[in-house]
Amino acid sequence: MNLSRPFIFRPVATSLLMLAILLVGLFAYRLLPVSALPKFDYPTIQVVTLYPGASPEIVTSTITAPLERQFGRIPGLKQMSSTSSDGASIITLQFNIDLALDVAEQDVQAAINAATNLLPPDLPQLPIYNKINPADPSIVTLALTSHTLPLPVMQKLAETRLTAKISQLSGVGLVSISGGQRPAIRIQANPKILAAYNLSLEDLRIAIGNANSNQAKGGFDGPTQASTLNSNDQLKSSDEFRAMIVTYRNGSPVRLADVAEVVDGAENSRLAAWANESSALIINIQRQPGANVIEVVDRIKRLLPQLKASLPPAVDVTILTDRTETIRASVHDVQLELLLSVALVVMVIFLFLRNVSATLIPSVAVPLSLIGTFAVMYLAGFSINNLTLMALIVATGFVVDDAIVMIENIMRYIEAGDPPLQAALKGAKQIGFTIISLTVSLIAVLIPLLFMGDVVG
Q1: Theoretical Cys-Cys bridge with 143: which of 238, 266, 280, 286, CB 3.0 to 4.6 Å?
Q2: pTM > 0.85: yes or no
Q3: Count of CB atoms within 10 A of residue 391's CB?
Q4: CB 327 within 8 A of CB 294
Q5: What angle (nearest 5°) sits at the alpha carbon of residue 297, between those of residues 299 and 393?
């Protein structure tokens, strides 16, 4: 068995093939995504429900428990955890790895629809679900700080001018805001004045709900024409709330400003975040699965000057964390180790063989084999990460072992007096099958890893 024979007799075709492998490998290297670890997507969905003003006990009994009963019927659900706090319920659903995330998303939506009738009727909005990946944390964290603007104003600026633009970038997945305070109108009733008007807090709540509604108003249906009445009764400012009539006493209107103090504030003033001891708004940015984390971060950094220009001068935007700094450093270190390993191998071969032509063969074969591997990695959907680079370093030892054994056998025939061509044919034929079987046996040792389940497999 002599697989090397056609390549030995056709040096020009062999050289062109090597050049093609080199060009394809270099082209594929530029297309490979870069990350710290291999791509692995946990099929995980997070469901968030907001219920302002509710205690953790009420949130648990009226929101979390009904949703959990519906989610527990979803096939393929592996683990479910929930957190109930003041005014919020967060349920995390983790599915089996072999279940498609899109299918799980449809099942979650169906479960939410089934639980709608069991949830409180006064929820500000239905439960919201997001696809998350616990194995892929934020790649960039931004901080918005200001010494003059309040957090509700900064929240509105971040939602309208920052998150929308960042989400449009290629490779950006989820953009979330932490520590923000949504603007709201807070009504602080005065119990003494309410009692003087013979009113209770429930009366005040009902009056506010009736005056601040957006419901159907009906219409006119005639023999030739039909008309629909359209009017929005929602109150949008604190001044409109102050002028709202709560009831009538002695023929005079009792307005909200007479029994309560109406101020512009936040939905939850206890939410906060800090950046370097300053109150701030935190923006967490995650990448899309398979996106090149370094390219995504570079796009975000190029967009930052435009985003800063669209904000008021009183708002400062700073980068709190940049995950690519450690990724760039670790990948660069492994790449340097890979180059050093190839250089050391070539140097050791030259010291022992003391033959320039024999040393030139592994010095060309090893880098060419590694570069050609990038094309296979691209077709297989791999990325450049610490594990794949370490695998290339291990594979370098395999390639060098085979090259040294082949060169040693050919040099033995040359020293015995055979011409280089005949020595190459004899040496390759004699140990060609041995080298192939040796390589296959080394690969076979790692085959059991392919049959392992869960994350390891």
Answers
A1: 280
A2: no
A3: 15
A4: yes
A5: 125
